[in-house]
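Session log. Operator J.P. requested a structure for one protein chain; no other inputs attached. Running the standard single-chain path with C-alpha cell output.
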Amino acid sequence: MFEVLQEALGNAIRTLRGRGRLTEANMREGLKMVQQALLEADVSVPVVKQFVQRVAQQALGEKVLKSLNPTQQLVGIVYQELVNLMGPVDHRIHMRPHGGIVLLCGLQGSGKTTTCAKLARYLAQQNHRPLLVAADLQRPAAIDQLEVLGQKAGIPVFVDRQASDPLVVCRNALDYARRNDLNPLVVDTAGRLHVDEELMQQLTRLDTELAPDEVLFVVDAMTGQDAVNSAKAFNEALEIDGVILTKLDGDARGGAALSVKSVTGVPIKFIGVGEGIDALEEFHPDRMARRILGMGDILTLVEQARQKLDKEAMLRQQEAIQKGQFTLEHFRDLLSQVGRLGSVTRWLGLLPGMSQLSEFMGDEDAEVQLRRIRGIIDSMTPEERRDPKIIDRSRRRRIAAGAGVDQQEVSLLLKQFEGMADIMRRLSQMGMRGRLQAIQQLSQVLAANPTMTITKQKKGTGKRLTPEERARLRKLREREERRRRREEKRRHGN
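Structure written below.
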C-alpha cells in the first residue's frame, strides 16, 4: 500500500537530511521532490499544487529554517498536511433505530457486493443486526454471490428472485426486517462499467423513495483518478455521505485516497484491504499519513490483534516480555499467531522501522511469507534461537543454506530482531507512563527518519576510541576469527 509514494517521499527526506544545513534553496528542491512523489502516486494535479503550496508556506518560514532540526520539522509539516488533506472523518453509520437503510453504490467491478457483506459484518460487530439486501438485478450472479458472502459472514440475506424492480425488493426487505427485528438494511445496488444516465436515474429513484440514512460510494483504488472522477459524478447525483476505497492491498499508488476528499468534499470512511470477509478497516487519516511516511500504524495492528489472535497464547507472550525475555523462539510463536492477520508484508508495514524486512517478501502468498521467516528461525539450533549473539558468519551461512535464503536475509532478520527485542526488554522495565514516553520518543525518531532500521540501543563505555585503537581491535578480531577457523578445520579433519 502506497509503496511508490512512501519510497519517493523517503528519498526526498533523505536528500534533505544529507545537506549540512537547510537553506531556502535546498528546501525548495526538497519540496519539488515531494511534489513529484505525489504526481507519480497519481494524486490530482490541483490537489498536489494546493498541498505543496501549503507545505511551502510553513516550511520556508524563518522559524523552521533556523530550528535545530529543520528536517524533522518538515516531516511534521508534511504529516499534518496529509492528515488535513484526507480528514476529518466520522466513521459512525448514522441510522434510525428502526427501518435504517445503508445504500451502497458504485461502478461494476469495484468490489461493491463483497463490500456490502464486509460492512454488514462490521455493523454486526457494533451490536447491530443487519440485513443484506440483494437489489442488484442487472447482474444475476450478484444475488448468488451475496447469498454466499452472507452465509460466510453469518448475516441474513433478503432475496426476491421474482421481482424486476429494485425498489420493490427494498420495500419487501423493509417489511421482512421489521418482522424479524433486523436493522439496518445494507443494500447492494446495480453497477455499470461506466457512469451513465440509466444508472443514475435508478439510483436517484432509490434515494428519493427510500430516503436512506447513509449513501456510501464504493470505488476501486487501483483506478486512480478515474476513482475520484466517478466519486464526483455520483456525489453530484446522490449527495453521498462517504466513500469506501477497495483494493488498497493491491498495487494502488494512493492517489485516490489523497485526492477524493479534497475533490468531492466527501470523506473516505472505510478501506478494503483484502479479499477476506473481515478485511474492512475504518479509515483514519492520521494513521494513513503515518503509513505513507513509513512510521507504521501500531493502533491498527493492536485493534486487529484483539479481534483475531489467540488471547491465551498472546498472554503467554506478554508474560515473557514482562520478565524481560523475548527470544527468537518467542518471535517464532508470535509469527504463528500474527499469520492470522493476513499478509505478512502488510502487518510488517504497520510496525515502525520494519518496512525494510517486508521488501524481501515481495508479493508472495502469506503462507509462503510465514514459512520464509519461520524457515530461517527453524534452521537455527535451540541455543542460537535463545541467544542470537552467538550467530557468526559460518553459522549465518549454515542457517541461510538450511532455510534456502540469502545470508543477507538472515542478517537483516537478526538485526531487526535485536532492535525489537531490546525495545521489548526496555519497555518491560518501565511503568505505564514510562512506556508511553518511550513509544512517543521512538515515534519522533521514526518521524525524522521514516526508513530507519530499529537497532539496539548502544551503551556508552565512557571512552571514545582513537582510529589507531579501533584498527588494533579490528586486527585482534580478525586474528581471533582466523584462529577459530583453524580449530574448526582441525576438528573436522579428525
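Operator note: The mean pLDDT is 76.
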